[in-house]
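Project standup — Tuesday

K.O.: blocked on the structure for the chain from last sprint. Re-posting the sequence here as requested.
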Amino acid sequence: MISQWTYWTNIRVFSARRIIRKPICRPATAAVSGVLVTFLLTAPRSIAMYNFGGQGMQTVLSGTVANASLYMNTLATWSNTPWNPAVGQPYNVPVSFALPPCGNIVNGRLILTLWGGEPQFTANLNVSVNSNALVVGGLNFGSTNDTNVSFSATQPSVYGSGYGTWLVGLPVSNSFLNTDGSSNLVSITVTTSNEFDGRIFQVTLLSVYQQSALSNEFQYAIAEGSGDIYDMPSSGEVCSRTAALGGLSVAQVNSAGLQALYTYAQDGENNLLFFNGVQLGGDDVANWDPTILDYGPSVVDFDVTADVVSSNNSAMFDICSADVPSPVASELRPQIAVLTATGPMALAPWQQWQMLYFNCTNCPQAQPNADPYGKGISNTNQFLLGLNPTNPASVFAITSMVPQGNDVQITWRTSGGDPSGLFGQGKTNILEYTAGDARGGFTNNFVSTGLTNVVTTLGNVLTNATDRGGATNGPARYYRVRLLVP
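H.V.: unblocked you, prediction finished:
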Protein backbone atom coordinates (compact mmCIF):
# COMPACT_ATOMS: atom_id res chain seq x y z
CA MET A 1 0.00 0.00 0.00
CA ILE A 2 1.20 3.52 -0.64
CA SER A 3 -0.04 6.55 1.10
CA GLN A 4 -2.46 8.85 -0.69
CA TRP A 5 -0.77 11.80 -2.39
CA THR A 6 -2.25 14.25 -4.82
CA TYR A 7 -0.04 15.75 -7.53
CA TRP A 8 -0.42 19.42 -7.38
CA THR A 9 1.92 19.42 -9.05
CA ASN A 10 -5.66 45.41 -26.96
CA ILE A 11 -3.63 48.13 -27.27
CA ARG A 12 -4.33 51.40 -29.09
CA VAL A 13 -2.02 53.46 -31.35
CA PHE A 14 -0.99 57.11 -31.92
CA SER A 15 1.94 59.31 -33.16
CA ALA A 16 3.52 62.74 -32.68
CA ARG A 17 4.99 65.52 -34.78
CA ARG A 18 8.67 66.30 -34.45
CA ILE A 19 10.19 69.31 -32.74
CA ILE A 20 12.92 71.23 -34.56
CA ARG A 21 16.33 70.06 -33.45
CA LYS A 22 17.83 73.52 -33.28
CA PRO A 23 17.12 75.62 -30.15
CA ILE A 24 13.52 76.76 -30.18
CA CYS A 25 11.46 79.47 -28.58
CA ARG A 26 9.73 78.01 -25.56
CA PRO A 27 5.98 78.29 -25.49
CA ALA A 28 5.18 80.10 -22.21
CA THR A 29 5.67 77.01 -20.03
CA ALA A 30 3.81 73.76 -19.67
CA ALA A 31 3.64 70.36 -18.07
CA VAL A 32 3.37 66.91 -19.51
CA SER A 33 2.41 63.62 -17.99
CA GLY A 34 1.80 60.06 -19.08
CA VAL A 35 0.73 56.70 -17.76
CA LEU A 36 1.88 53.15 -18.42
CA VAL A 37 1.55 49.90 -16.57
CA THR A 38 4.17 47.20 -16.88
CA PHE A 39 5.17 43.93 -15.28
CA LEU A 40 8.09 41.77 -14.04
CA LEU A 41 11.58 43.05 -13.31
CA THR A 42 14.19 42.10 -15.83
CA ALA A 43 16.47 44.99 -16.74
CA PRO A 44 19.31 46.19 -14.50
CA ARG A 45 18.67 49.77 -13.51
CA SER A 46 21.10 52.56 -14.35
CA ILE A 47 21.50 56.23 -13.52
CA ALA A 48 19.39 58.31 -15.87
CA MET A 49 22.16 60.71 -16.99
CA TYR A 50 20.36 63.00 -19.44
CA ASN A 51 21.56 62.24 -22.97
CA PHE A 52 20.73 64.56 -25.84
CA GLY A 53 20.83 61.72 -28.37
CA GLY A 54 18.81 59.34 -26.19
CA GLN A 55 19.72 56.32 -24.07
CA GLY A 56 18.06 53.65 -26.17
CA MET A 57 15.42 51.12 -25.09
CA GLN A 58 15.65 48.11 -22.79
CA THR A 59 13.22 45.47 -21.55
CA VAL A 60 11.99 46.51 -18.11
CA LEU A 61 9.25 43.96 -17.47
CA SER A 62 8.81 40.43 -18.76
CA GLY A 63 7.27 37.17 -17.66
CA THR A 64 5.07 34.18 -18.44
CA VAL A 65 1.67 33.90 -16.75
CA ALA A 66 -1.24 31.47 -16.96
CA ASN A 67 -4.72 32.70 -17.96
CA ALA A 68 -3.53 36.22 -18.72
CA SER A 69 -3.57 39.07 -21.20
CA LEU A 70 -2.20 42.60 -21.58
CA TYR A 71 -4.11 45.83 -21.19
CA MET A 72 -2.39 48.73 -22.95
CA ASN A 73 -4.11 52.01 -23.57
CA THR A 74 -2.58 55.33 -24.59
CA LEU A 75 -4.26 58.72 -24.23
CA ALA A 76 -3.15 61.82 -26.13
CA THR A 77 -2.99 64.64 -23.57
CA TRP A 78 -1.08 67.44 -25.31
CA SER A 79 -2.36 71.00 -24.91
CA ASN A 80 -1.83 73.39 -27.83
CA THR A 81 -2.07 76.24 -25.33
CA PRO A 82 1.23 76.79 -23.50
CA TRP A 83 1.24 76.63 -19.73
CA ASN A 84 2.58 79.60 -17.82
CA PRO A 85 4.09 78.19 -14.59
CA ALA A 86 4.40 81.65 -13.07
CA VAL A 87 0.63 82.00 -12.85
CA GLY A 88 -0.83 78.56 -13.55
CA GLN A 89 0.73 76.21 -11.02
CA PRO A 90 -0.04 73.46 -10.41
CA TYR A 91 -0.59 71.98 -13.90
CA ASN A 92 -3.16 69.18 -13.58
CA VAL A 93 -4.04 66.40 -16.01
CA PRO A 94 -6.78 63.95 -14.93
CA VAL A 95 -7.26 60.77 -17.02
CA SER A 96 -8.90 57.39 -16.48
CA PHE A 97 -8.44 53.82 -17.64
CA ALA A 98 -10.84 50.87 -17.30
CA LEU A 99 -9.26 47.42 -17.30
CA PRO A 100 -11.43 44.43 -18.25
CA PRO A 101 -13.02 42.69 -15.26
CA CYS A 102 -10.45 40.20 -14.02
CA GLY A 103 -9.52 38.00 -11.11
CA ASN A 104 -6.03 39.34 -10.52
CA ILE A 105 -3.61 42.07 -11.54
CA VAL A 106 -0.11 40.70 -12.16
CA ASN A 107 1.60 44.08 -12.49
CA GLY A 108 1.15 47.58 -13.83
CA ARG A 109 3.14 50.50 -15.15
CA LEU A 110 2.22 54.08 -15.92
CA ILE A 111 4.32 55.80 -18.60
CA LEU A 112 4.13 59.42 -19.62
CA THR A 113 6.02 61.76 -21.92
CA LEU A 114 6.56 65.38 -20.82
CA TRP A 115 7.93 68.45 -22.56
CA GLY A 116 10.44 70.49 -20.56
CA GLY A 117 11.11 73.29 -23.03
CA GLU A 118 14.85 73.13 -22.46
CA PRO A 119 16.94 70.40 -20.84
CA GLN A 120 18.14 72.44 -17.85
CA PHE A 121 14.66 72.99 -16.42
CA THR A 122 13.32 70.83 -13.57
CA ALA A 123 9.92 69.76 -12.26
CA ASN A 124 8.12 67.89 -9.51
CA LEU A 125 5.67 65.24 -10.71
CA ASN A 126 2.87 63.92 -8.50
CA VAL A 127 0.85 60.98 -9.81
CA SER A 128 -1.88 59.06 -8.04
CA VAL A 129 -4.00 56.10 -9.12
CA ASN A 130 -7.38 55.90 -7.41
CA SER A 131 -6.02 58.38 -4.81
CA ASN A 132 -2.92 56.24 -4.13
CA ALA A 133 0.32 58.18 -4.63
CA LEU A 134 2.84 56.41 -6.86
CA VAL A 135 5.74 58.42 -5.40
CA VAL A 136 5.29 59.84 -1.92
CA GLY A 137 6.20 63.52 -2.05
CA GLY A 138 6.36 63.45 -5.83
CA LEU A 139 9.17 62.73 -8.27
CA ASN A 140 11.79 65.45 -8.75
CA PHE A 141 13.46 65.21 -12.15
CA GLY A 142 14.95 67.27 -14.94
CA SER A 143 18.17 69.08 -15.89
CA THR A 144 21.22 67.65 -17.61
CA ASN A 145 22.36 66.43 -14.17
CA ASP A 146 19.28 64.31 -13.46
CA THR A 147 20.20 61.45 -11.09
CA ASN A 148 17.05 59.35 -11.15
CA VAL A 149 17.45 55.72 -12.20
CA SER A 150 16.36 54.39 -15.56
CA PHE A 151 15.30 50.92 -16.78
CA SER A 152 14.03 49.85 -13.36
CA ALA A 153 10.94 47.71 -12.84
CA THR A 154 10.61 48.67 -9.16
CA GLN A 155 11.60 52.35 -9.03
CA PRO A 156 10.45 55.42 -10.95
CA SER A 157 12.50 55.53 -14.16
CA VAL A 158 13.41 58.77 -15.93
CA TYR A 159 14.78 59.27 -19.44
CA GLY A 160 15.78 62.74 -20.70
CA SER A 161 16.83 63.63 -24.25
CA GLY A 162 16.76 66.33 -26.92
CA TYR A 163 15.69 69.83 -25.96
CA GLY A 164 13.92 68.69 -22.82
CA THR A 165 11.79 65.66 -23.71
CA TRP A 166 11.25 63.42 -20.68
CA LEU A 167 9.85 59.91 -20.47
CA VAL A 168 8.82 58.76 -16.99
CA GLY A 169 7.93 55.16 -16.12
CA LEU A 170 6.17 54.54 -12.80
CA PRO A 171 5.46 51.13 -11.24
CA VAL A 172 1.82 50.78 -10.17
CA SER A 173 1.04 48.52 -7.23
CA ASN A 174 -1.38 45.70 -8.08
CA SER A 175 -3.60 46.75 -5.20
CA PHE A 176 -4.10 50.24 -6.68
CA LEU A 177 -5.93 48.99 -9.78
CA ASN A 178 -9.59 47.99 -9.91
CA THR A 179 -10.43 44.45 -11.00
CA ASP A 180 -14.20 44.93 -11.38
CA GLY A 181 -14.07 46.78 -14.71
CA SER A 182 -14.61 50.20 -13.18
CA SER A 183 -12.48 53.20 -14.14
CA ASN A 184 -9.07 53.76 -12.60
CA LEU A 185 -8.73 57.48 -11.95
CA VAL A 186 -5.25 58.87 -12.58
CA SER A 187 -4.34 62.34 -11.34
CA ILE A 188 -1.16 63.99 -12.65
CA THR A 189 0.18 67.24 -11.24
CA VAL A 190 3.30 69.12 -12.41
CA THR A 191 4.95 71.98 -10.58
CA THR A 192 8.24 73.77 -11.29
CA SER A 193 10.51 76.28 -9.61
CA ASN A 194 11.76 77.53 -12.99
CA GLU A 195 10.35 77.37 -16.52
CA PHE A 196 9.77 73.66 -17.07
CA ASP A 197 7.09 73.40 -19.79
CA GLY A 198 5.22 70.49 -18.28
CA ARG A 199 2.69 69.74 -20.97
CA ILE A 200 2.12 66.03 -21.45
CA PHE A 201 2.26 64.32 -24.83
CA GLN A 202 0.77 61.02 -23.77
CA VAL A 203 -0.21 58.85 -20.82
CA THR A 204 -0.10 55.06 -21.17
CA LEU A 205 -1.28 52.41 -18.77
CA LEU A 206 0.02 48.86 -19.20
CA SER A 207 -1.17 46.01 -17.03
CA VAL A 208 -0.98 42.24 -17.19
CA TYR A 209 -4.17 40.78 -15.75
CA GLN A 210 -5.56 37.27 -15.23
CA GLN A 211 -8.96 35.81 -16.05
CA SER A 212 -9.58 32.09 -15.60
CA ALA A 213 -11.71 32.04 -18.75
CA LEU A 214 -8.66 32.92 -20.88
CA SER A 215 -7.24 29.41 -20.34
CA ASN A 216 -3.88 30.20 -21.94
CA GLU A 217 -0.20 30.64 -21.37
CA PHE A 218 0.74 34.29 -21.84
CA GLN A 219 4.20 35.80 -22.22
CA TYR A 220 5.18 39.44 -22.43
CA ALA A 221 8.24 41.67 -22.70
CA ILE A 222 7.98 45.45 -22.27
CA ALA A 223 10.81 47.72 -23.31
CA GLU A 224 10.96 51.46 -22.68
CA GLY A 225 13.40 54.32 -22.96
CA SER A 226 14.47 57.33 -24.98
CA GLY A 227 14.92 55.70 -28.37
CA ASP A 228 15.64 58.95 -30.22
CA ILE A 229 16.70 58.53 -33.86
CA TYR A 230 17.77 61.11 -36.48
CA ASP A 231 17.90 60.79 -40.27
CA MET A 232 21.26 62.58 -40.42
CA PRO A 233 22.80 61.87 -37.02
CA SER A 234 25.56 64.02 -35.62
CA SER A 235 27.90 63.10 -32.76
CA GLY A 236 26.05 61.16 -30.04
CA GLU A 237 23.03 60.49 -32.26
CA VAL A 238 21.93 57.44 -34.26
CA CYS A 239 19.54 56.84 -37.15
CA SER A 240 18.20 53.48 -35.93
CA ARG A 241 17.45 51.76 -32.61
CA THR A 242 16.93 48.14 -31.69
CA ALA A 243 14.85 47.00 -28.72
CA ALA A 244 15.84 43.49 -27.63
CA LEU A 245 12.71 41.63 -26.49
CA GLY A 246 14.17 38.24 -25.56
CA GLY A 247 13.12 34.68 -26.28
CA LEU A 248 9.91 32.75 -25.78
CA SER A 249 9.04 30.17 -23.14
CA VAL A 250 5.54 29.53 -24.53
CA ALA A 251 5.79 26.01 -25.93
CA GLN A 252 3.28 26.51 -28.73
CA VAL A 253 2.59 30.05 -29.97
CA ASN A 254 -0.95 30.54 -31.24
CA SER A 255 -0.61 34.30 -31.62
CA ALA A 256 2.02 36.99 -31.09
CA GLY A 257 1.82 40.76 -31.30
CA LEU A 258 4.16 43.74 -31.34
CA GLN A 259 3.03 47.15 -30.11
CA ALA A 260 5.15 50.28 -30.27
CA LEU A 261 4.67 53.85 -29.10
CA TYR A 262 6.38 56.89 -30.64
CA THR A 263 6.34 60.61 -30.08
CA TYR A 264 7.47 63.25 -32.59
CA ALA A 265 6.04 61.41 -35.58
CA GLN A 266 4.34 63.33 -38.36
CA ASP A 267 2.04 62.00 -41.05
CA GLY A 268 3.79 61.82 -44.41
CA GLU A 269 7.35 61.56 -43.04
CA ASN A 270 8.65 58.06 -43.78
CA ASN A 271 10.04 55.74 -41.12
CA LEU A 272 10.49 51.98 -40.96
CA LEU A 273 9.80 49.33 -38.35
CA PHE A 274 11.28 45.82 -38.47
CA PHE A 275 10.57 42.79 -36.31
CA ASN A 276 13.24 40.11 -36.51
CA GLY A 277 14.32 41.63 -39.81
CA VAL A 278 10.81 41.62 -41.32
CA GLN A 279 9.45 45.05 -42.31
CA LEU A 280 6.08 45.89 -40.78
CA GLY A 281 3.47 48.38 -41.90
CA GLY A 282 4.93 49.98 -45.01
CA ASP A 283 7.21 53.02 -45.25
CA ASP A 284 5.35 55.43 -42.94
CA VAL A 285 4.64 53.46 -39.78
CA ALA A 286 4.58 56.13 -37.07
CA ASN A 287 2.37 59.07 -37.93
CA TRP A 288 0.32 61.71 -36.20
CA ASP A 289 -2.21 64.11 -37.70
CA PRO A 290 -1.30 67.61 -36.39
CA THR A 291 -4.78 68.88 -37.21
CA ILE A 292 -5.94 66.94 -34.12
CA LEU A 293 -3.28 68.28 -31.75
CA ASP A 294 0.10 69.82 -32.49
CA TYR A 295 1.82 66.81 -30.96
CA GLY A 296 0.61 63.39 -29.98
CA PRO A 297 1.60 59.75 -29.52
CA SER A 298 1.62 57.27 -32.36
CA VAL A 299 0.87 53.70 -31.28
CA VAL A 300 1.09 50.84 -33.76
CA ASP A 301 0.01 47.23 -33.37
CA PHE A 302 1.11 44.33 -35.59
CA ASP A 303 0.48 40.60 -35.72
CA VAL A 304 3.93 38.95 -35.68
CA THR A 305 2.85 35.34 -35.16
CA ALA A 306 4.61 34.24 -38.34
CA ASP A 307 7.82 36.06 -37.45
CA VAL A 308 8.36 35.36 -33.75
CA VAL A 309 11.28 33.07 -32.87
CA SER A 310 12.31 31.09 -29.80
CA SER A 311 15.24 33.37 -28.90
CA ASN A 312 16.49 36.92 -29.45
CA ASN A 313 13.35 38.61 -30.73
CA SER A 314 13.87 42.30 -31.49
CA ALA A 315 12.21 45.39 -32.94
CA MET A 316 14.24 47.88 -34.98
CA PHE A 317 13.20 51.48 -35.61
CA ASP A 318 14.86 53.08 -38.66
CA ILE A 319 15.00 56.50 -40.30
CA CYS A 320 18.47 56.14 -41.82
CA SER A 321 18.47 58.07 -45.08
CA ALA A 322 20.20 55.13 -46.78
CA ASP A 323 17.31 52.80 -45.85
CA VAL A 324 14.15 54.91 -45.93
CA PRO A 325 12.55 56.31 -49.11
CA SER A 326 12.06 60.06 -49.27
CA PRO A 327 10.59 62.06 -47.61
CA VAL A 328 12.35 60.76 -44.49
CA ALA A 329 11.36 61.81 -40.96
CA SER A 330 14.13 64.06 -39.67
CA GLU A 331 13.74 62.73 -36.13
CA LEU A 332 11.60 60.23 -34.25
CA ARG A 333 11.27 59.01 -30.68
CA PRO A 334 10.23 55.37 -30.21
CA GLN A 335 9.67 55.05 -26.46
CA ILE A 336 7.80 51.80 -25.81
CA ALA A 337 7.96 48.37 -27.49
CA VAL A 338 5.86 45.43 -26.27
CA LEU A 339 5.99 41.84 -27.44
CA THR A 340 3.25 39.42 -26.38
CA ALA A 341 2.75 35.75 -27.19
CA THR A 342 -0.16 33.47 -26.36
CA GLY A 343 -0.33 29.70 -26.43
CA PRO A 344 -2.42 26.88 -25.00
CA MET A 345 -2.32 26.36 -21.26
CA ALA A 346 0.86 24.65 -20.14
CA LEU A 347 -0.37 21.59 -18.28
CA ALA A 348 1.33 20.24 -15.19
CA PRO A 349 2.45 16.58 -15.40
CA TRP A 350 -0.60 15.43 -13.38
CA GLN A 351 -2.93 17.25 -15.79
CA GLN A 352 -1.07 15.81 -18.79
CA TRP A 353 -1.58 12.33 -17.29
CA GLN A 354 -5.30 13.01 -16.83
CA MET A 355 -5.61 14.13 -20.44
CA LEU A 356 -3.61 11.13 -21.70
CA TYR A 357 -5.91 8.57 -20.12
CA PHE A 358 -9.26 10.35 -19.66
CA ASN A 359 -9.08 13.26 -22.14
CA CYS A 360 -10.30 15.56 -19.38
CA THR A 361 -9.18 17.04 -16.07
CA ASN A 362 -12.50 17.86 -14.40
CA CYS A 363 -14.56 14.76 -15.22
CA PRO A 364 -15.38 12.33 -12.36
CA GLN A 365 -13.22 9.46 -13.63
CA ALA A 366 -10.11 11.68 -13.74
CA GLN A 367 -10.30 12.98 -10.19
CA PRO A 368 -7.39 12.29 -7.81
CA ASN A 369 -9.31 9.92 -5.52
CA ALA A 370 -11.21 8.15 -8.29
CA ASP A 371 -10.57 4.48 -9.10
CA PRO A 372 -12.62 4.05 -12.30
CA TYR A 373 -11.62 0.36 -12.86
CA GLY A 374 -11.97 -0.73 -9.24
CA LYS A 375 -8.34 -1.78 -8.80
CA GLY A 376 -8.17 -0.49 -5.23
CA ILE A 377 -5.65 2.21 -6.22
CA SER A 378 -6.54 5.87 -6.56
CA ASN A 379 -5.67 7.82 -9.70
CA THR A 380 -3.14 9.82 -7.70
CA ASN A 381 -1.26 6.71 -6.66
CA GLN A 382 -1.46 5.20 -10.14
CA PHE A 383 0.12 8.37 -11.49
CA LEU A 384 2.94 8.09 -8.94
CA LEU A 385 3.43 4.38 -9.58
CA GLY A 386 3.52 4.71 -13.37
CA LEU A 387 0.43 2.56 -13.87
CA ASN A 388 -2.13 2.72 -16.65
CA PRO A 389 -5.42 3.58 -14.89
CA THR A 390 -7.50 2.24 -17.80
CA ASN A 391 -5.84 -1.20 -17.79
CA PRO A 392 -7.20 -3.49 -15.05
CA ALA A 393 -4.02 -5.61 -15.27
CA SER A 394 -1.79 -2.62 -14.51
CA VAL A 395 -1.49 -2.98 -10.73
CA PHE A 396 0.89 -2.63 -7.80
CA ALA A 397 0.40 -5.82 -5.82
CA ILE A 398 2.22 -8.82 -4.34
CA THR A 399 1.35 -11.91 -6.37
CA SER A 400 3.19 -14.65 -4.48
CA MET A 401 5.39 -15.50 -1.47
CA VAL A 402 7.28 -18.76 -1.92
CA PRO A 403 9.47 -20.38 0.81
CA GLN A 404 12.86 -21.45 -0.50
CA GLY A 405 14.51 -23.32 2.35
CA ASN A 406 15.18 -20.72 5.04
CA ASP A 407 14.34 -17.88 2.66
CA VAL A 408 11.18 -16.39 1.21
CA GLN A 409 10.91 -15.07 -2.37
CA ILE A 410 8.33 -12.32 -2.75
CA THR A 411 7.06 -11.50 -6.27
CA TRP A 412 4.96 -8.45 -7.17
CA ARG A 413 3.55 -6.50 -10.08
CA THR A 414 4.79 -2.93 -10.51
CA SER A 415 6.02 -0.48 -13.15
CA GLY A 416 9.23 1.36 -13.94
CA GLY A 417 7.26 4.32 -15.24
CA ASP A 418 4.21 5.23 -17.27
CA PRO A 419 4.12 3.29 -20.56
CA SER A 420 4.07 6.60 -22.48
CA GLY A 421 7.48 7.56 -21.14
CA LEU A 422 6.22 11.12 -20.61
CA PHE A 423 6.61 11.22 -16.85
CA GLY A 424 10.09 9.89 -16.21
CA GLN A 425 11.60 6.47 -15.84
CA GLY A 426 12.72 4.53 -12.78
CA LYS A 427 10.66 3.62 -9.70
CA THR A 428 12.18 2.56 -6.38
CA ASN A 429 10.29 -0.27 -4.62
CA ILE A 430 11.16 -1.13 -1.00
CA LEU A 431 10.25 -4.53 0.47
CA GLU A 432 9.08 -4.19 4.10
CA TYR A 433 7.86 -6.62 6.76
CA THR A 434 6.16 -6.74 10.13
CA ALA A 435 5.93 -9.59 12.63
CA GLY A 436 2.76 -11.62 13.00
CA ASP A 437 1.28 -12.85 16.26
CA ALA A 438 0.15 -16.27 17.48
CA ARG A 439 -3.43 -15.60 16.39
CA GLY A 440 -2.42 -14.82 12.81
CA GLY A 441 -2.74 -11.07 13.18
CA PHE A 442 -0.11 -8.42 12.62
CA THR A 443 0.72 -4.86 13.51
CA ASN A 444 1.24 -1.99 11.10
CA ASN A 445 4.79 -1.45 12.32
CA PHE A 446 6.44 -2.31 9.01
CA VAL A 447 10.20 -1.97 8.70
CA SER A 448 12.52 -2.43 5.74
CA THR A 449 13.98 -5.83 4.91
CA GLY A 450 16.92 -3.93 3.45
CA LEU A 451 15.85 -5.04 -0.04
CA THR A 452 15.25 -2.35 -2.65
CA ASN A 453 14.39 -2.87 -6.32
CA VAL A 454 14.90 0.00 -8.77
CA VAL A 455 12.56 -0.83 -11.63
CA THR A 456 13.46 0.89 -14.92
CA THR A 457 11.30 -0.95 -17.47
CA LEU A 458 8.33 1.17 -18.56
CA GLY A 459 4.86 -0.34 -18.30
CA ASN A 460 3.79 -3.46 -16.42
CA VAL A 461 6.65 -5.34 -14.76
CA LEU A 462 6.86 -8.51 -12.65
CA THR A 463 9.77 -8.37 -10.20
CA ASN A 464 10.87 -10.15 -7.04
CA ALA A 465 13.18 -10.08 -4.03
CA THR A 466 14.36 -12.79 -1.62
CA ASP A 467 14.20 -12.22 2.13
CA ARG A 468 17.13 -14.27 3.48
CA GLY A 469 16.12 -16.22 6.59
CA GLY A 470 12.55 -15.01 6.27
CA ALA A 471 11.15 -18.54 6.61
CA THR A 472 12.86 -19.14 9.96
CA ASN A 473 11.04 -16.41 11.84
CA GLY A 474 8.14 -17.19 14.07
CA PRO A 475 5.45 -16.13 14.20
CA ALA A 476 5.27 -15.64 10.45
CA ARG A 477 6.30 -12.41 8.74
CA TYR A 478 3.88 -10.22 6.81
CA TYR A 479 5.24 -8.36 3.77
CA ARG A 480 4.35 -5.27 1.83
CA VAL A 481 6.02 -3.27 -0.95
CA ARG A 482 6.28 0.50 -0.69
CA LEU A 483 6.97 2.99 -3.46
CA LEU A 484 9.64 5.50 -2.55
CA VAL A 485 8.27 8.87 -3.65
CA PRO A 486 11.07 11.41 -4.31
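K.O.: great, moving the ticket to review. Residues 218 and 342 are 5 Å apart (CA to CA). Confidence is low (pLDDT under 50) at residues 1-44.
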